[in-house]
Design a protein that fits this description.
CATH topology: Rossmann fold
Structural class: alpha/beta
Strand content: 5-15%
CATH class: Alpha Beta
Helix content: 40-55%
Bound molecules: NADP nicotinamide-adenine-dinucleotide phosphate
Shape: globular
Order of helices and strands: EHEHEHEHEHEHHEHH
Largest sheet: 7 strands, parallel
Radius of gyration: 18 Å
Length: 296
């Protein structure tokens, strides 16, 4: 197994990718901002899976940091075979807010970076004749909940176009579109998880394993779980009044929260249900599906 790079690999869905890839025997490059958490996740992966782990502390809202990751993707000494562009954060900011700084930051971390890092990965992988790029989008791509939906729609569309440009190269591009996943994401975005029926939530580990399986099979748009595949089929092929109604309901519930316009706090600061963020483990059994920020 070769090297895999995961942005946002210290929490939630990214951490689940790290867990799944380490279990497959991949050596890992893990990217996030929080150095202490990076070190704990790396140590857990080395100890539990005997894989090599590099950590890169980088703020993906800063172009110079993104360029460092792009250079790592271009490295031919220990080439990256699989790149997961996953880092991101919830964005409940109102589109009429006069301060657009958070919106711009989101477009960089979840949009421009996907372009830059996919581009670097794709060129290096095509030159070597193989590789996989996984871009984490969202089921939100098919509704209209602020700029977050717009960015994630772009990620899906971009990845579909990339897959066409990669045809005949043996390099795979896959966009992943999860519904609601129990991670630190929701509390970091707005202090509370949305009041969603329990059966609609899916597990981060299921997102990662489904995405890796779909990418290996050549699937370009991966939607984890049957219930969300049905939901997205209805959103795309049913009457447009359905996604519009869902969008109004979700946006309205966020207005009730008063909206959020801050840079999300560190994972370890959203602690209400966290099992033990200070002691990361790569074992899924130690990461209850409702434990935001539980480490690997
Ligand atoms: N949870 C859901 O319901 C859901 C549903 C659909 C799609 N998604 C998408 O899944 C992805 C992962 O979300 P999650 O739920 O796993 O959230 P999470 O638990 O909050 O994890 C986010 C990860 O991204 C990293 N990150 C955030 N901002 C960063 C930045 N500026 N630079 C570098 N790293 C950064 C975080 O580490 P640091 O804070 O240390 O940097 C952390 O490792 C996101 O793209 C999100 O949009 C989530």
């Amino acid at each position: 197994m070769g090297w895999a790079l995961v942005t946002g690999g210290t929490s939630g869905i990214g951490l689940a990718f790290v867990r799944a890839l380490a279990a497959e025997g991949h050596d890992l490059v893990i990217v996030a901002r929080d150095e202490a958490r990076l070190a704990k996740v790396a140590e857990a992966a080395r100890t539990q899976y005997k894989v090599a782990v590099e950590t890169v502390s980088a703020d993906l809202a800063v172009r110079a940091d993104v360029d460092r990751i792009a250079s790592r993707l271009d490295d031919t000494d220990s080439p990256i075979d699989l790149c997961v562009n996953n880092a991101g954060f919830g964005l409940h900011a109102n589109l009429l807010d006069d301060d657009t700084a958070l919106q711009e930051r989101a477009m960089m971390v979840m949009g421009t970076d996907v372009l830059l890092l996919s581009n670097a990965a794709a060129r290096a992988m095509v030159a070597r004749g193989s590789g996989t790029i996984i871009n984490v989008a969202s089921a939100s791509a098919w509704i209209y909940t602020g700029n977050y939906s717009a960015i994630k729609r772009w990620v899906v569309s971009y990845t579909q176009a990339l897959a066409i440009d990669l045809e005949g190269t043996s390099v795979q591009a896959t966009a992943v579109c999860p519904g609601w996943v129990k991670t630190a994401f929701h509390e970091r975005a707005g202090g509370e998880r949305p009041h969603i029926p329990g059966w609609l939530w899916i597990k981060a580990d299921d997102v990662a394993t489904t995405a890796l399986r779909d990418a290996a099979r050549g699937v370009v748009v991966s939607v984890p779980s049957l219930k969300w595949r049905i939901g997205l089929w209805v959103a795309q092929h049913g009457p447009q009044s359905v996604p519009l109604a869902v969008s109004r309901a979700v946006t309205g519930s966020r207005r009730g929260e008063g909206g959020v316009s801050h840079v999300p706090p560190p994972v370890d600061k959203v602690t209400s249900e966290t099992s033990d963020p200070a002691s990361p483990t790569l074992s899924a059994a130690d990461s209850p599906d409702d434990a935001p920020g539980s480490a690997v």
